[in-house]
């Protein structure tokens, strides 16, 4: 008998033709995606990498914004780290960041919890609470200067009538630092309130009902239920607000310009003064790189805490 030959099925032939052999190059779809994304990646790298390389070069040279100057290695970093002005600015930056992060977080969280209750005109209340964050920082700083800058301003006049004497809020170093920190909390708490409100909206209310049946008080529910369930959002808001505070130039400069006697001069203000006023580009850029290093370390530590959070 003659053996019968069967033709291969059309489906198998099509599948084998469309499926690229394993280990023999990149698929056509992957190449297409790479070609589509490549222009954007190149543009982003050029926009970010070029200034970074130039700044790194300036930090190890003794020059100005126009002239690169002589190569000095890491002497600019050593000069910065041994400068009393740097450590004064670092101390204020630390205080400013801690107060800005946790002050705005506590205020925002308290208001977010309040907005979850049944209060009259809650929608109008939300809009009004957003104004410090929505209003441009120039307008806010101008309003605060009007409130506290001179002895005839409303707040110094009020303190004088209350018997505290003539209080100079922006002329006294301690009061100026306190005023700047309070101003930072004022302009930042709406952001924290939004972050916390979004996290609270995702919490299942039946958890609180079960805890109430088990006899848990409101404080116990807040500590053992609310805070753990919104911890991921909390850490993210802390990371973002830390970056905002360390890099915050207009809030400080528009209110006090870093004075009096460098009492409110943060690292970013000191870097600006060193580069654009003292014309010392190397030390100023070195300060900026040290700031970046600290921000990377703090952000990495907080990000690891996010990964450790278990809300199951």
Automatic annotation (TrEMBL):
Q: Which GO terms describe its biological process?
A: transmembrane transport
Q: Which InterPro entries match?
A: MetI-like (IPR000515), MetI-like_sf (IPR035906)
Cellular localization per UniProt: Cell membrane
Membrane topology for this entry?
Answer: Multi-pass membrane protein
- ABC transmembrane type-1 domain: which residues? 90-302
Region: Disordered, residue numbers: 1-25
Pfam family for this entry, one: BPD_transp_1
- Highest taxon of the lineage: Bacteria
What keywords are assigned to this protein?
Cell membrane, Membrane, Sugar transport, Transmembrane, Transmembrane helix, Transport
- Could you state one GO cellular component term attached to this entry? plasma membrane
Q: Does the keyword Transmembrane apply?
A: yes
* Annotated Low complexity bias: 1-22
> Can you tell me where the transmembrane regions are?
33-53, 90-115, 127-147, 167-187, 235-255, 284-303
Identify its protein family: Belongs to the binding-protein-dependent transport system permease family.
What is the name of this protein? Answer: Multiple sugar transport system permease protein
Q: Which organism is it from?
A: Kribbella antiqua
């Amino acid at each position: 008998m003659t053996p019968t030959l069967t033709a291969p099925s059309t489906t198998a032939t099509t599948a084998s033709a469309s499926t690229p052999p394993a280990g023999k190059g990149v698929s056509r779809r992957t190449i297409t995606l790479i070609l589509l994304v490549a222009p954007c990646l190149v543009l982003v790298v050029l926009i970010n990498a070029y200034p970074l390389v130039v700044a790194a070069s300036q930090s190890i040279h003794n020059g100005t914004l126009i002239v690169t100057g002589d190569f000095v290695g890491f002497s600019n970093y050593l000069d910065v780290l041994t400068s009393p002005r740097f450590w004064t600015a670092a101390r204020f930056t630390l205080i400013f960041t801690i107060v800005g992060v946790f002050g705005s977080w506590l205020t925002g969280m308290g208001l977010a919890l309040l907005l979850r209750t049944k209060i009259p005109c809650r929608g109008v209340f939300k809009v009004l609470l957003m104004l410090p964050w929505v209003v441009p920082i120039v307008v806010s700083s101008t309003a605060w200067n009007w409130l506290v800058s001179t002895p005839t301003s409303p707040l110094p006049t009020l303190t004088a009538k209350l018997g505290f004497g003539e209080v100079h809020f922006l002329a006294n170093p301690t009061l100026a630092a306190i005023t700047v920190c309070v101003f930072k909390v004022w302009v930042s708490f709406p952001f924290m309130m939004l972050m916390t409100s979004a996290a609270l909206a995702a919490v299942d209310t039946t958890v609180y009902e079960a805890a109430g049946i088990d006899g848990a008080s409101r404080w116990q529910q807040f500590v053992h239920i609310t805070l753990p369930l919104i911890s991921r959002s909390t850490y993210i808001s802390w990371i973002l607000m830390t970056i905002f505070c360390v890099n915050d130039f207009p809030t400080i400069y528009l209110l006090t310009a870093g004075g009096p006697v460098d009492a409110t001069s943060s690292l970013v203000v000191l870097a600006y003064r060193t580069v654009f006023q003292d014309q010392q580009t190397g030390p100023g850029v070195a300060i900026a790189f040290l700031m970046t290093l600290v921000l990377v370390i703090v952000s990495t530590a907080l990000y690891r805490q996010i990964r450790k959070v278990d809300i199951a």
